[in-house]
């Protein structure tokens, strides 16, 4: 089972469908069984895109740090 984030801090670009579509969590909708939609919640997130604030040249190295809790 994939752990789900408790919080998504804007402007994180996320996917709720396994990486097929991307957007801000506030812009995404989840289809319900009855054909209606509801706003996406942090627990619906399947993937997160990270935007780095500087570019990395091909073949270069860098360090990325993030905090998380695995349950």
Question: How many distinct beta strands?
Answer: 5
| Number of helical regions | 0
Helix content: under 10%
Overall mean pLDDT score? 83
Per-chain topology:
Blueprint: E1 13-15, E2 23-24, E3 29-31, E4 37-39, E5 47-49
Antiparallel strand pairs: 1-2, 1-5, 3-4
Question: Which characteristics define this entry?
Answer:
single chain, 71 residues, mainly beta, 3-stranded antiparallel sheet, two-stranded antiparallel sheet, 20% strand, elongated
Brief synopsis:
With 71 residues, the chain is mostly beta strands. The chain has strands spanning 13-15, 23-24, 29-31, 37-39, 47-49.
Written account of the structure:
Helices cover about 0% and strands about 20% of the residues. It has no helices and five strands. The strands form two sheets. The protein has a three-stranded antiparallel beta sheet, with no helix packed on it. A two-stranded antiparallel ribbon has the order 3-4.
